[in-house]
Design brief:
By secondary structure, this protein is α+β, with helices and mostly antiparallel strands. It has helices at 9-23, 66-73, 101-110, 113-121, 131-144; strands at 2-4, 30-36, 42-48, 51-53, 56-62, 76-83, 88-98, 156-170, 178-185, 188-194.
């Protein structure tokens, strides 16, 4: 195992994501988010990465959602990106923290108006009796915010996964894949190569 200061896994991830943006047919920022509830039951779903920096990987959601409830009970998560066009995968493990109010406000304001209305209208993860009920709520909030800004609802915000492990996987012939793992250390990152 070697300690590295030259190779930053966040910058490597950004490079890979940039390549995926050019080669994937859509949503190169789509990632699988895996969480675990208070009873230890895992759950996973696809979400969109909205920011990545040295502080971690950020996504947004309704705070009443299944994922938000899991995070409240167990603030650990795993992410997985898979880019078929590049035959690459990145796997991340870490701890989850809420973004601050100002950051959530700024991101919410950057969304198109229809998406902001949709955030107000959706009771995410709750039972929906019929599609008409959702459409009715969209119409109600469209009327409510017919002029002016659409503010961020208190029940909608973001989370950041602070990585403790990042694994870069590259497909190779005969299933002899390359796996490079970064582990967070007190003074940077350590790396190791794994058997495929």
């Amino acid at each position: 195992m070697t300690v590295t200061t030259q190779h930053d896994p966040i910058e490597l991830f950004k490079d890979w994501l940039g390549e995926a943006d050019r080669t994937e047919p859509n949503d190169a920022n789509a990632m699988n988010l895996a969480t675990v509830n208070a009873d230890g039951v895992p759950s996973s779903r696809m979400v969109l990465l909205k920011d990545v920096d040295q502080h971690g990987f950020t996504f947004y959601t309704n705070l009443g959602s299944h994922k938000a409830q899991d995070i409240a009970a167990n603030p650990g998560a795993a992410l997985c990106f898979h880019w078929k066009s590049l035959k690459r995968q990145v796997r991340i493990e870490g701890t989850v923290k809420a973004v601050d109010e100002a950051e959530a406000d700024t991101y919410f304001a950057s969304r198109d108006r229809a998406s902001r209305i949709g955030a107000w209208a959706s009771k995410q993860s709750q039972v929906l009796a019929g599609r008409f009920d959702l459409e009715k709520r969209v119409a109600e909030f469209t009327a409510k915010f017919h002029v002016g800004d659409v503010p961020r609802p208190e029940f909608w915000s973001g989370y950041r996964v602070f990585p403790t492990l990042i694994e870069f996987w590259t497909d190779k012939p005969f299933r002899l894949h390359e796996r490079l793992v970064y582990h967070r250390a007190d003074d940077g990152w350590t790396t190791e190569t794994l058997y495929p």
